[in-house]
Amino acid sequence: MNELSYFIAANGVNDSGPVIIDQPLTCITLPSFPGLFSFFLAFGFCNWDSEKEHRLKIIGKDCTGGVFLDTGDLEIPQNIPNKSIDIKMNIQNLRLSIEGLYIFELYLNDECVNRINLYGCKELEA
Description:
Blueprint lengths: L2 E11 L7 E4 L2 E4 L4 E12 L7 E8 L5 E4 L3 E3 L8 E12 L3 E9 L2 E12 L4
Parallel strand pairs: 3-10
Antiparallel strand pairs: 1-2, 1-4, 4-8, 5-6, 5-7, 5-9, 9-10
InterPro entries: DUF6941
Pfam families: DUF6941 (PF22091)
């Protein structure tokens, strides 16, 4: 039960209806570090067990192991009518301090079910 079908970072995700990912991210580029970065995280589960409540959490860590994002536990109520769920999170003005690897970990009921690794680097000057 509760099989992760996708976990992706993107520049955009549609507001309603089926999830449509716009410009998936393979890296984070900023004019300079430290800097602010806005993006979306989207994830979905199939074979969802709606008989009980679940907890989701996303933790972001930089290349030094420092935590820069912790959503805390997000409660998903029981009796969701669908056997699959899609969740979109709009992350605005997240402060990133250094160039290097950024890791986003997705937790379901305190178990890490997947990670996204994005490298943060300075934009190339034209």
